[in-house]
Design brief:
CATH superfamily: ACP-like
Helix content: 40-55%
CATH architecture: Orthogonal Bundle
CATH class: Mainly Alpha
Number of helices: 3
Strand content: under 5%
């Protein structure tokens, strides 16, 4: 499974309204999640990949695609197993 597919799967598991999502999905507007829900998603990603994410770095992220790019930028080896 590709890294982006793994992230999409995590979001689908954690967010109730995440049935039909894509890389262009706006995390807060389209999924209608608040900051607590966003932290739950971040924590799930941390658990899945054994990483430590600074939530402040992701506060300006709007889309799932932006989130994936930011993760790949901060953790170049993520999802390469």
């Amino acid at each position: 499974m590709q890294f982006s597919d793994r992230i999409l799967s995590i979001i689908k598991e954690d967010v109730e309204k995440a049935n039909n999502i894509s890389l262009d999905t706006n995390i807060r507007k389209d999924l209608e999640i608040d900051s607590l829900d966003f932290l739950i998603v971040i924590n799930s990603i941390e658990d899945e990949f054994s990483i430590n994410i600074d939530e402040k770095d992701f506060s300006e992220i709007e889309t799932i695609g932006e989130m994936i790019l930011k993760l790949e930028e901060q953790f170049p080896d993520i999802g390469k197993d």
